[in-house]
Write a structure and sequence with these properties.
heterodimer; A: about 625 residues; mainly alpha; Cytochrome C Oxidase, Chain A; two-stranded antiparallel ribbon; 17 helices; 2 strands; B: about 190 residues; Four Helix Bundle (Hemerythrin (Met), subunit A); 6 helices
């Protein structure tokens, strides 16, 4: 017993004042610092966004200009360009599949949550780092493994997965069905297993950090809405990603071991497969039990970022702080009970369909609360039109105009007509794709000074915003009409059907708009990388914001605050408080220092603050 | 010295719970979600018919008993650590590990019982599901055994004792969860067979 190690875990307390030089590998690669991991996620997200966007441009060329000679793409696409200089029709399916997979999972889940949850949670709640830096690092490297496998699958001979991003069996389960269901599909599944592991490791960390590591005074009712959004997002992920894992696992067994969970009585070339007793609908239930919460995993962080940016740049408290939290929670809860609205046409009992329809339409209520609160926060504010603010307003615009079409699609009777048409494509690209993308861009413009200690160029930001904002509407608005006309998504060619040949010009227009919008993103990418090295030096609090991250040094080191972590005394939205000399009072300023602006009950709080200070001494 | 009693993470006091313990609970929730979704898939699939009826392996009774006993020895190990009785701690941890290995062997013997009835992994979904449930649970138990091994090594290095209980507590939580999960699966499969 005498040798027993009885030093209480005090030595675990990392001394943050001590500076130690880190090697390149431990600083930039296998880092456990949440800020560096956030940047790693951001850069990988940008990398994937370029690839995912690039794929969409290739298939937009096919849709907009079906007669175009694509021989010039042969250096990139090789044999996927046919002898006649056309895009291979099976590769077209692979393109839409990989575009969806990459954008939904690798850009808007890992790139968005991974970047901003990692970066902002410790900084805004006043923590030195995540609860487990090691798990955080593991989360990123799991994502890298998933990325590498998914990336390699783009270049294999049979092509990447091609059964749509939802990979429904039996198409995805039978390699005989299409080339993409061979090795490409296997790699897709393996990559997704690593991706799920990465998300779960990250999510467990986010939840633990928010609950356990808040600084003194940072109660849940004083948390910035960003943190609320990231927190609830992580909870949704924790509950839904394991279900995707279960769905993928059974699919793996069906594909590689010959079980029949999803397969039943299938004939290929006149020969019966041995599988009996399976149900492809079972897969859809399991998949959409993840899949629907997933769209909120994508949009909630964007809504959180938007709340913060709009309040700061309207110089006004967020309208309905508690209603905002309540609506996030309501959306999170409802997200788990609406999955079957993706399956109205699977032959489901119409009565069951009407229940799911009812639950789906309820989501309009918390969503409308959020939209209303954004607009009322803007109303009569001293609006500062920073690029981040413009992107936030654009996000609200997309959220509303895309959300409205959700009301149509949520009705089972209407959905049966519109299911799998371009109307659906237009709907989710606006409400989830573009809105979340704009939320992410708003976050990058807003927190770039904190990430790199320099400012992004505003003028390029404005150009980037207007080209993207107008461009996105020009791309997705016409798609509604093509969808109402009945054109199905994922089809290789318009021109084979007389009914749709009148949409040829509209499709060419959409494709041109898409190319311009995609091109505009390179303005941002130039701005981003140029400003990292050459941007204007940032001040400590460039947006005059209230949250804790702006109390750190311009380039926060390991441990975030050089001295003690500030204590929090107030909520994060004390902007333009009557009586106050400045139009913002940061969270760490005690009420006892702001007697001129305190409300009645805050005067009481101020007395207690002083009393507790005396007690401490 | 009130602050030193809490677990220091940087210089911030931990608010409610040891973060790693909390993370373990979250991990348990995510594991639970896998089994809940598979259970519901099982129920949905069974309701669709085309369901093979076969004799439920009797040997699962033995393995259930084994895993319950291993939970008891795990708890005894924890109590021993609390009382700084390192010898008993090591014995109980070792016993728990052996029981767990015994449980896994027992599960494979139960699979044999299925195979003798011509119920294979590939075939009717009713059989496949049993293999999936037991296999996935077994995989999680393998993870638990590895964790147990780490605790045992630390017990030999005098690192598990009344002033340093976090690791064995987390391990015990996971262990009891796996035991409970098995009992749930056993009952679920028995009642829905």
């Amino acid at each position: 017993m005498s040798v027993a190690d009885i030093t209480v875990e005090e030595h675990l307390a990392h001394d943050d004042h001590e500076h130690h030089e880190q090697s390149f590998i431990s600083k930039y690669l296998f880092t456990t610092d949440h800020k560096m991991i956030a940047k790693q996620f951001l850069l990988s997200g940008i990398f994937w966004a370029i690839i995912g966007g690039g794929l969409s441009i290739i298939f937009r060329l096919q849709l907009g200009f079906p007669d175009m000679q694509l021989e010039w793409l042969r250096p990139i696409l090789g044999k996927w360009i046919t002898e006649g200089g056309k895009l291979d029709s099976e590769f077209y399916l692979a393109l839409v599949t990989m575009h969806g997979t990459i954008m939904v999972f690798f850009v808007l889940t890992a790139g968005l949550s991974g970047t901003f949850s990692n970066f902002l949670i410790p900084l805004q709640i006043g923590a030195r780092d995540m609860a487990s830096g090691f798990m955080n690092m593991l989360s990123f490297w799991m994502f890298v493994v998933a990325s590498i496998i998914m990336f390699i699958s783009l270049f294999i001979e049979t092509g990447p997965a091609a059964g749509g991003w939802t990979v429904y069996p039996p198409l995805s389960a039978l390699p005989q069905a299409i080339q993409g269901s061979g090795l490409g599909m296997t790699m897709w599944l393996v990559a997704m297993v690593f991706f799920i592991a990465s998300q779960l490791l990250g999510g467990i960390n986010y939840i633990t950090t928010v609950i356990n590591l808040r600084t003194e005074g940072m109660s849940f009712s004083r948390l910035p809405l960003t943190i609320w959004a990231f927190f609830i997002t992580a909870v949704i992920g924790l509950l839904s990603f394991p279900v995707l894992f279960a769905a993928a696992l059974l699919l793996v067994f069906d594909r590689s071991f010959g079980t029949s969970f999803y397969l039943s009585e299938i004939y290929i070339n006149g020969e019966a497969l041995p599988n009996v007793g399976g149900s492809p609908i079972l897969y859809q239930h399991l998949f959409w039990f993840l899949g629907h919460p997933e769209v909120y995993i994508v949009i909630l962080p964007a809504l959180g970022i938007t709340s913060e940016v709009i309040s700061t740049n309207s110089r006004k408290p967020i309208f309905g702080y508690k209603a905002m939290i309540g609506s996030i929670m309501a959306i999170a809860f409802l997200s788990f009970v609406v999955w079957a609205h993706h399956m109205f046409v699977t032959g489901m009992n119409p009565f069951l369909g009407s229940i799911f329809m009812f639950l789906t339409l309820i989501i309009a209520v918390p969503s409308a609360v959020k939209a209303f609160n954004y607009i009322t926060t803007l109303w009569k504010g001293n609006i500062v039109f920073t690029p981040a603010m413009l992107f936030s307003i654009g996000m609200v615009s997309f959220f509303i105009s895309g959300g409205l079409t959700g009301l149509f699609l949520g009705n089972s009777a209407v959905d049966i007509t519109l299911h799998d048409t371009y109307f659906v494509v237009a709907h989710f690209h606006l409400v989830m794709g573009s809105a979340a993308f704009f939320g992410m861009l708003a976050g990058i413009y807003h927190w770039f000074p904190k990430m790199y200690g320099r400012m992004l160029d505003n003028r390029l930001g404005y150009i980037h915003f207007w080209l993207s904002f107008v461009g996105i509407y020009l791309v997705f608005f016409p798609l509604h009409y093509i969808g109402i006309a009945g054109f199905p998504r994922r089809y290789y060619s318009f021109t084979s059907f007389d009914a749709f040949s009148t949409f040829g010009d509209l499709n060419a227009f959409v494709s041109i708009a898409a190319i311009i919008t995609f091109g505009a993103q390179f303005i941002f990418i130039f701005n981003f990388f140029y400003s990292i090295y050459r941007g204007r030096k940032a001040s400590q609090n460039p947006w005059k914001s209230n949250t804790l991250e702006w109390t750190t040094p311009v380039n926060p080191g390991h441990g975030n605050w050089p001295g003690a972590i500030p204590t929090v005394y107030r909520w994060p939205y004390d902007y333009s408080k009557p009586g106050a000399p400045d139009d913002f009072i940061p969270q760490h300023i005690p009420y006892s220092q702001t007697p001129e602006s305190n409300l009645e009950y805050e005067k009481e709080l101020a007395k207690n603050e002083e009393a507790s200070k005396v007690n401490e001494e | 010295m009130d602050r030193a009693a809490d677990i220091p993470m940087g210089s911030v006091r931990v608010k409610s719970m040891h973060p790693q313990k909390f993370a373990m609970w979250l991990f348990i929730i995510s594991v639970l979600m896998i089994f809940i979704s598979l259970s519901s898939a099982y129920i949905v699939k069974k309701a669709e018919g085309d369901w093979l009826i076969f004799k439920f392996p009797e040997f699962f009774k033995v393995t259930s008993l084994v895993i319950v006993i291993s939970s008891v020895t795990m708890h005894l190990a924890y109590l021993a650590a609390k009382k700084n009785n390192l010898l008993l701690l090591r014995i109980y941890l070792g016993t728990t590990g052996l029981l767990a290995v015994g449980f896994l062997i027992g599960q494979i013997l139960s699979w044999n019982e299925l195979v003798t009835q011509d119920v294979f992994f590939v075939g009717n979904v009713a059989g496949s599901f049993i293999y999936i449930f037991t296999g996935l649970h077994g995989l999680h138990l393998v993870g638990g055994i590895i964790f147990l091994g780490v605790v045992l090594i630390n017990a030999f290095r005098y690192k598990v004792h009344s002033k340093s209980l976090a690791q064995i507590e987390i391990c015990a939580t996971y262990w009891h969860f796996l035991g409970g999960l098995w009992l749930y699966l056993y009952l679920f499969l028995l009642l829905n067979n």
